[in-house]
Amino acid sequence: MPPPRRAALRRLRDAGGALLDQALVVWMPGPGSYTGEDAAELSLHGGRAVIEDVAARLASLGARPAEPGEFTRRAFLAGRMDLTEAEAVADLVAAETTAQRRQALRQLEGGLRALYDGWATRLHLMLAQAEALIEFPDEDLPPDEEAGLAAAIAALRDEVAGHLADGRRGERLREGLVFAITGPPNVGKSSLINRLAGRDVAIVAPAPGTTRDVIEARVVLGGVPVTLLDTAGLRATDDPIEAEGGRRARARAADADLVIAVAEADGPPPDPAAGLRVVNKTDLAPAAGRQEDVLAVSALTGAGIDTLVDALSARAAALTATAGPPMLTRARHRAALDRLAGCLVRATRADLAELRAEDLRLGLRALGTITGAVDVEAVLDVVFSRFCIGK
């Protein structure tokens, strides 16, 4: 055996003594390992035959393949991390961009955990005060005890509400944004998405109405993953297929994080209600593209595309800004904090001290489901089932 936590070159052999591989072996006795248990790592040569033969030998000795997220789940159960940090491991593995990596690392370093642990400590104190007011109503408790408790509950209620009102920036960064390109037929929407994606995503043809369905392209803008949607042209039509394409375009645009309205340089202006307005084909009508609050581009020549990319990157960065306190990154967290917020609102309005204490208790439990501080077996299955195999 090599010394603990020092890589050593070793020959790996099968039961008959045949050489399987030369590998770097690291032995990590617990609790100084990722999971807190005794662990060993083999850094093999990457050939399929090597991996399969070594895995078969390990299985014959009683080992088995890890379940998705099993190592991180064991680390959580050993108390080496809470659920928010465990989820950050999955986010770090899945990160596509630098911004996603930074957000995951911030959560892995305990940003959310520290915030929620602080709230839990305050909730425990409030609950103790509430119980004291119930158990000792006739005792000589300080006269401002009741007012102090009410103020503390209201203060935490406002903090939780502010945390929830973050514009879903953390979730948007983790999941990626959706930008929809809309406009009348034949204004160059497909040419524009091809230019932004740097490849031929959509079919381009002179005939209007070529795009009938929503076409997607994944790009990175401002360090944020963005799905661009090329939608069908919007116009009145008797063609049922084109009409369905228009309906889908409107539906996807309504759910998008940003709508990019495109028009021709020598035609009617882009939709004034859109988040970003663009005129295309300025190569055909340069002067017509000079409109206030409108970006002028030519998808054919590339003129103005860099300015458009900069504008889109700025919007993406603004929608996912990570400055300030740690942000929510998952719908699971948001749902639990919604329950906590509801409990705190009810606690501030409770007519009976017993009801106020019960709402505080329920709020504490809701908060605990985020970090795993309460019995959350059902939550664990959901959290770790989405991990990579072996992580």
From TrEMBL:
<dbReference type="InterPro" id="IPR027266">
    <property type="entry name" value="TrmE/GcvT-like"/>
</dbReference>
<keyword id="KW-0547">Nucleotide-binding</keyword>
<dbReference type="InterPro" id="IPR005225">
    <property type="entry name" value="Small_GTP-bd"/>
</dbReference>
<dbReference type="InterPro" id="IPR031168">
    <property type="entry name" value="G_TrmE"/>
</dbReference>
<dbReference type="InterPro" id="IPR006073">
    <property type="entry name" value="GTP-bd"/>
</dbReference>
<feature type="binding site">
    <location>
        <begin position="205"/>
        <end position="211"/>
    </location>
    <ligand>
        <name>GTP</name>
    </ligand>
</feature>
<feature type="binding site">
    <location>
        <position position="41"/>
    </location>
    <ligand>
        <name>(6S)-5-formyl-5,6,7,8-tetrahydrofolate</name>
    </ligand>
</feature>
<comment type="similarity">
    <text>Belongs to the TRAFAC class TrmE-Era-EngA-EngB-Septin-like GTPase superfamily. TrmE GTPase family.</text>
</comment>
<dbReference type="Pfam" id="PF12631">
    <property type="entry name" value="MnmE_helical"/>
</dbReference>
<keyword id="KW-0342">GTP-binding</keyword>
<comment type="subunit">
    <text>Homodimer. Heterotetramer of two MnmE and two MnmG subunits.</text>
</comment>
<dbReference type="InterPro" id="IPR004520">
    <property type="entry name" value="GTPase_MnmE"/>
</dbReference>
<dbReference type="InterPro" id="IPR018948">
    <property type="entry name" value="GTP-bd_TrmE_N"/>
</dbReference>
<feature type="binding site">
    <location>
        <position position="391"/>
    </location>
    <ligand>
        <name>(6S)-5-formyl-5,6,7,8-tetrahydrofolate</name>
    </ligand>
</feature>
<feature type="binding site">
    <location>
        <position position="80"/>
    </location>
    <ligand>
        <name>(6S)-5-formyl-5,6,7,8-tetrahydrofolate</name>
    </ligand>
</feature>
<dbReference type="GO" id="GO:0002098">
    <property type="term" value="P:tRNA wobble uridine modification"/>
</dbReference>
<dbReference type="GO" id="GO:0005737">
    <property type="term" value="C:cytoplasm"/>
</dbReference>
<dbReference type="InterPro" id="IPR025867">
    <property type="entry name" value="MnmE_helical"/>
</dbReference>
<keyword id="KW-0479">Metal-binding</keyword>
<dbReference type="Pfam" id="PF01926">
    <property type="entry name" value="MMR_HSR1"/>
</dbReference>
<dbReference type="GO" id="GO:0005525">
    <property type="term" value="F:GTP binding"/>
</dbReference>
<feature type="binding site">
    <location>
        <begin position="186"/>
        <end position="191"/>
    </location>
    <ligand>
        <name>GTP</name>
    </ligand>
</feature>
<dbReference type="GO" id="GO:0046872">
    <property type="term" value="F:metal ion binding"/>
</dbReference>
<feature type="domain" description="TrmE-type G">
    <location>
        <begin position="176"/>
        <end position="317"/>
    </location>
</feature>
<keyword id="KW-0460">Magnesium</keyword>
<keyword id="KW-0630">Potassium</keyword>
<feature type="binding site">
    <location>
        <position position="13"/>
    </location>
    <ligand>
        <name>(6S)-5-formyl-5,6,7,8-tetrahydrofolate</name>
    </ligand>
</feature>
<comment type="function">
    <text>Exhibits a very high intrinsic GTPase hydrolysis rate. Involved in the addition of a carboxymethylaminomethyl (cmnm) group at the wobble position (U34) of certain tRNAs, forming tRNA-cmnm(5)s(2)U34.</text>
</comment>
<dbReference type="Pfam" id="PF10396">
    <property type="entry name" value="TrmE_N"/>
</dbReference>
<dbReference type="GO" id="GO:0030488">
    <property type="term" value="P:tRNA methylation"/>
</dbReference>
<feature type="binding site">
    <location>
        <begin position="230"/>
        <end position="233"/>
    </location>
    <ligand>
        <name>GTP</name>
    </ligand>
</feature>
<protein>
    <recommendedName>
        <fullName>tRNA modification GTPase MnmE</fullName>
        <ecNumber>3.6.-.-</ecNumber>
    </recommendedName>
</protein>
<dbReference type="GO" id="GO:0003924">
    <property type="term" value="F:GTPase activity"/>
</dbReference>
<keyword id="KW-0819">tRNA processing</keyword>
<dbReference type="InterPro" id="IPR027368">
    <property type="entry name" value="MnmE_dom2"/>
</dbReference>
<keyword id="KW-0963">Cytoplasm</keyword>
<feature type="binding site">
    <location>
        <position position="211"/>
    </location>
    <ligand>
        <name>Mg(2+)</name>
    </ligand>
</feature>
<feature type="binding site">
    <location>
        <position position="190"/>
    </location>
    <ligand>
        <name>Mg(2+)</name>
    </ligand>
</feature>
<dbReference type="InterPro" id="IPR027417">
    <property type="entry name" value="P-loop_NTPase"/>
</dbReference>
<keyword id="KW-0378">Hydrolase</keyword>
